[in-house]
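Methods — Computational structure assignment.
A single polypeptide chain was analysed. Its primary sequence is given first, followed by the predicted tertiary structure written as structure tokens.
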Amino acid sequence: MEVVFALDEEDLVALARQHMLHSPALRRRYRIRWLGATLLMGAAAVFLFVHLSLKFPALYLGAFALFFLVLYPYYDRWLVGRTLRHIVSARLHPKALAPRRLRATPEGLEVEVGGSKTFTAWSRVSGIEVTPERTFVAIDGAYSIVIPRRRLGEEIHRRFIDTLLKKGTFIFILL
């Protein structure tokens, strides 16, 4: 089966975000910043209260640690979204938005963009994640292909995903 579609800048930002969300190194760095800063502020608050008898600074620092624990995920999500938009728009190449042909063959997945073809064997396709707006295909553990649902239509999208599931043996996640 074969589908033809074009991407826009939002699709590329979504692909970059998906790639980043599933990166073990970035998730580890996020947890260290989030929990590490909270624990450091909490320990400093305890030190100020117990050893220096500074009740109000300790209370303020403890409250700030709790505030940071609750609100840092929202701040990080906003910061990442803003940064990814800037990166994608700065590196945007006309070929990235060109119409592409995605073909599922018995041997693998073939992508054709602007006259150049890329072939990926089914053994290298490691996962598919379907969201309400897009489908992401992981190759060798990294999300590399984005398929916008709204440009394909629901019926064609469903048939193509069913074709992918029949061809490969990989992880399928439906959100």
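Note: Helices lie at 9-21, 24-50, 55-91, 149-152, 154-167.
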